[in-house]
Write a structure and sequence with these properties.
The complex is a heterodimer of chains A (264) and B (356). Chain A contains 6 helices and 12 strands. Chain A has 264 residues and is an alpha/beta fold. In chain A, strands 2-1-6-9-10 form a 5-stranded parallel β-sheet. Chain A has a 3-stranded antiparallel β-sheet with strand order 3-4-5, with no helix packed on it. A two-stranded parallel sheet of chain A has the order 7-8. Chain A is globular. Chain B is of the alpha/beta class and 356 residues long. In chain B, 38% of the residues lie in helices and 11% in strands. Chain B starts with 13 loop residues before the first helix and ends with a helix. The chains are: A alpha/beta (264), B alpha/beta (356). The interface between A and B is medium-sized, with 15 and 20 residues. Chain A: This is SGNH hydrolase-type esterase domain-containing protein.
């Protein structure tokens, strides 16, 4: 068996929901899950035996520790790579050289580039310290918000409506690629076939698209993905990093079991 | 027998007042014409030394206006690299009184004459503040857009300012022949190319400096801005001179002209006061001089002493962050790092680099 730990923040929910489908399609894979309290690296202690332990009570139904020494691969999911910094900058400023959006102030594209470089470098430095550069680890950015995410706060994903979204997301992605290439971890950007365009996921993958009415949160959830996404993303991971092909394809991996892993 | 000196205070006598840095002596270094409190809206502008003053005043809890503030978005290092939060506006170093005057003219004019734009390696620079975009911009239109936004922000700062702390640095400058604008640095230093037909050297006289400062004040008054002025002279010597003189003589001339202009305005015009930062840093007046090993940049100790003298003279006590912050909600909550000389952004330094 190939043992894979999927750890991270609330975004591990998509993989948990797809667990049955994944294990059916990849019968030689055994999955384990662990969510960092408050999505924070500092909320956990990584002891000398390779056990990652929550420093504070885990959410109900979630494990408070995981023994990573027993794992063959670690999939660290849901990493933001400071994309909120990009969002805030283009929410508050026009960018000189890109299409104007009527903001009162502008910043230069060079400044935005250096800003992203600074923020992402710092983020990757924190990542490097977490799990101590363990080469079993593959880091995955949080999925882009899904198509239809009209109600997102402007500073959460300001690039969605930006006419230069492709340039902006390209700049962010290139910077993440560059800094992750210096770490011992693997890095797996969101596969193109799971995106609907620059900086946005396919709408059908949104958690909002599959929740039953009684499960739908007050604000439709377009930032977390459903089990279809979890399966499709894991499949891409397995092909690229485990060298495994799915042995079968489930009829409908989309099953929503609300495990309390929604937006926290 | 009576002497006109017999009833003068200690501060009038060299032996009793010079060479001391105790609080009482520092407080006597300046007798402000008008009160400035921690709530007074201050605008900082000027040469490299004004950056030191700006940081020291902010750290000290004074109400320093901050136009084009980026402290909430960018780390300090990046703010400063792109000319933000070095002064009360993103105008870069304003070395001469003429630069200051034209900046005021531009800010209050509804349609200011466009400034020159320099090109280097396919990138474009605002010649009136060439270092604020260290890599330049992609198109001249972007330079003009950036300048328009800057002037709008500056207008807001000028309208709110109650006191402008202007640090004069140089009398030597270069004038763009086509526009008539005084440039902060010679073409070919940061960007552009030196062409004697397109930019001419000028060494301002005391009369010109005073005219420019009075004209600046008049422009502000005409626009309804009521700020008064506290003038200082930068203690930083010229890094190079184009006057033909030895750089030491050229520095002495430049500082003497600026100091004399400040003194004459202080004596003759109620809107202008002079604060002796220059004397504190460069002379023995307060146990100085406080200059680095190259006798060029003021030391941090010197800058702190300048601020201490400023605060004590105003009866604001010795400046310290905590109590001051409570009185001054406009102060950014994020403390700025201890200034180091290398952080001071100075086009003049580039002149030296070009010599190598």
């Amino acid at each position: 068996m190939t043992r894979v730990a999927i750890i991270g923040n609330s975004h591990i929910g998509a993989y948990m929901l797809a667990r049955e489908a994944i294990e059916a399609a990849f019968p030689k894979v055994a999955l384990s899950f662990f969510a960092l309290p408050r999505h924070s690296f500092s909320s956990c202690r990584y002891d000398e035996n390779g056990v990652l332990i929550a420093r504070e009570p885990a959410a109900e139904g979630l494990p408070d520790r995981i023994d990573l020494s027993e794992q063959d691969h670690i999939l660290l999911t849901g990493q933001s790579f400071a994309i909120s910094g990009l969002s805030r900058m283009i929410s508050d400023f026009d960018v000189l050289g890109l299409a104007p959006r009527g903001r009162a102030r502008s910043v230069s594209l060079m400044l935005l580039t250096e800003f992203l470089d600074f923020r992402i470098e710092r983020y990757c430095e924190k990542l490097a310290r977490f799990l101590r550069g363990d080469p079993r680890c593959v880091v995955v950015p949080a999925p882009f918000p899904a198509d239809g995410a009209a109600d997102l706060p402007q500073d959460a994903a300001a690039w969605l409506e930006h006419p230069s979204a492709a340039d902006l997301i390209g700049l962010w992605s290139d910077t993440v690629d560059y800094h992750m290439s210096g770490l011992d971890y693997g890095y797996m950007p969101q596969p193109d076939h799971l995106t609907a365009g620059p900086g946005r996921s396919i709408g059908a993958y949104a958690r909002a698209a599959t929740l039953a009415p009684e499960q739908t949160p007050a604000a439709p959830d377009y930032t977390h993905m459903n089990s279809d996404y979890g399966f499709a993303h894991f499949e891409a991971f397995a092909r690229q990093w485990l060298g495994l092909e799915p042995e079968c394809r489930p009829h409908s991996p989309r099953k929503e079991y609300d495990n309390g892993l929604g937006p926290q | 027998m009576r002497s006109p000196y017999q009833d003068l205070p200690d501060r009038a006598f060299w032996r009793s007042s010079v060479g001391r840095d105790d609080a009482a002596s520092l407080a006597q270094l300046w007798t402000p014409k008008a009160g400035i409190t921690r709530e007074t809206a201050l605008m900082t502008i000027g040469s490299c030394f004004a950056q030191h003053l700006h940081r020291a005043l902010v750290r000290g809890g004074w109400n320093v206006l901050q136009g084009e503030d980026m402290s909430a978005h960018l780390p300090t290092r990046l703010c400063h690299r792109y000319g933000y939060n070095l002064f009360s506006g993103r105008y870069g170093n304003v070395y001469t009184a003429r630069q200051f005057r034209q900046l005021i003219e531009q800010a209050i004019s509804p349609a200011p004459a466009p400034g020159p734009i320099w090109e280097k390696d396919g990138r474009f620079y605002d010649a009136l503040r060439p270092t604020v975009e260290p890599e330049g911009l992609g198109h001249p239109d972007e330079v003009m857009q950036s300048r328009r936004e800057h002037l709008v922000a500056l207008r807001g700062v000028l309208e709110r300012a109650e006191c402008i702390i202007l640090t004069l640095g140089l009398t030597e400058g270069w004038i763009d022949s086509a526009s008539g604008y005084a440039l902060p640095t010679a073409p070919g230093t940061v960007a552009g190319d030196h062409d004697p037909a397109r930019a001419t050297f000028h060494n301002f006289t005391q009369t010109e400096v005073m005219e420019d400062l009075r004209a600046s004040r008049d422009l502000l008054r005409a626009h309804g801005c009521s700020a008064r002025f506290v003038l200082t002279v930068s203690p930083v010597p010229l890094v190079a001179t184009a006057s033909g003189d030895h750089v030491a003589s050229a520095t002495a001339y430049s500082k003497a002209v600026l100091r004399a202009a400040c003194g004459e305005l202080q004596m003759s015009d109620p809107d202008f006061d002079y604060f002796p930062a220059y004397e504190i840093v460069t002379t023995t007046i307060a146990r100085g001089p406080y200059l680095d090993q190259f006798a060029r940049q003021p030391t941090d100790e010197g800058v702190q002493l300048v601020l201490k003298a400023f605060s004590l003279a105003l009866g604001a006590g010795e400046t310290s962050g905590k109590g001051a912050e409570a009185d001054s909600p406009a102060i950014p909550p994020t403390p700025l790092p201890t200034p180091v000389d290398d952080d001071t952004i100075c086009e003049e330094i580039l002149l030296e680099a070009f010599r190598k």
